[in-house]
Amino acid sequence: MLPAMPRPDRERFLAEPRVGVLGVTDSRGGDRAPLIVPVWYAYEPGGEVVVEMGRETIKAQLLRAAGRFSLCVQDEGRPYRYVSVEGPVTAIEDPVDPAVREALAQRYLDPEEARGYLAATSDQLKDDVVFRMRPQHWRSADFAAFAADFAEGGAGEGGGTD
């Protein structure tokens, strides 16, 4: 089993500014796999995952239809870590609150870049929506302890996923 992160650690990890990979069931028919796309997101421990996107995009249409989504974030550096959450959409905010959009830009860009980005893309406020999701199911792994066991010649006992 993979070594899972304790709850406070996984919530802190998810709250760090990382690019998330959003997954949603693709209900357009045929033999389609889930839609998987990178997104900017926001999260505060104990709160909801917040993502913004174009109102008429495929991902927005699929999120409305599915009513739930997954988000996975990772640290590719050694030791490898990830957190994946899945849960129901709790709210769709249309139009987007400018403060939410500004907070997302400031999360991922330095202050000067964020100002420039917000100014250059100000028209998106009328075209975007925000989806909020309450994490219901968590999966995580932190290979730090696992790697330490191997470095010390141990057997590599793991804690598992949650």
From TrEMBL:
<dbReference type="GO" id="GO:0016627">
    <property type="term" value="F:oxidoreductase activity, acting on the CH-CH group of donors"/>
</dbReference>
<dbReference type="InterPro" id="IPR012349">
    <property type="entry name" value="Split_barrel_FMN-bd"/>
</dbReference>
<dbReference type="GO" id="GO:0005829">
    <property type="term" value="C:cytosol"/>
</dbReference>
<dbReference type="InterPro" id="IPR052019">
    <property type="entry name" value="F420H2_bilvrd_red/Heme_oxyg"/>
</dbReference>
<dbReference type="InterPro" id="IPR024747">
    <property type="entry name" value="Pyridox_Oxase-rel"/>
</dbReference>
<keyword id="KW-0560">Oxidoreductase</keyword>
<protein>
    <submittedName>
        <fullName>Pyridoxamine 5'-phosphate oxidase</fullName>
    </submittedName>
</protein>
<dbReference type="Pfam" id="PF12900">
    <property type="entry name" value="Pyridox_ox_2"/>
</dbReference>
<dbReference type="GO" id="GO:0070967">
    <property type="term" value="F:coenzyme F420 binding"/>
</dbReference>
